[in-house]
Write a structure and sequence with these properties.
The chain has about 100 residues and is α+β, with helices and mostly antiparallel strands. It is built from 2 helices and 2 strands; from the N terminus they run ββαα. A two-stranded antiparallel ribbon has the order 1-2. α1 packs antiparallel against α2. The two termini are about 20 Å apart. It comes from Hypotaenidia okinawae.
Amino acid sequence: MLWLQTNKTGSGTMNLGGSLTRQMEKDETVSDSSPHIANIGRLVEDMENKIRSTLNEIYFGKTKDIVNGLRSIDAIPDNQKYKQLQRELSQVLTQRQIYIQPDN
């Protein structure tokens, strides 16, 4: 589950969220050096990394498309409001990306 909400004077309220589910099956050997719980742990970590990567691609790519497609009904004398909105959104998304990075 991923959720982003902002409420800025210049851009108004923005809610962006989504969820992603994945399933995987894999046969592994069980031994003293590779017990069942270790195999499960590796599968969970691998799937978590794949989901994180997919979310990053979908979420940030789609958000970029949306921001690039924004247009104003009111005439903007210059692009300062648009550029400020892009900077704010980029900053929030960068902070969010740092937050979802795996601990190494």
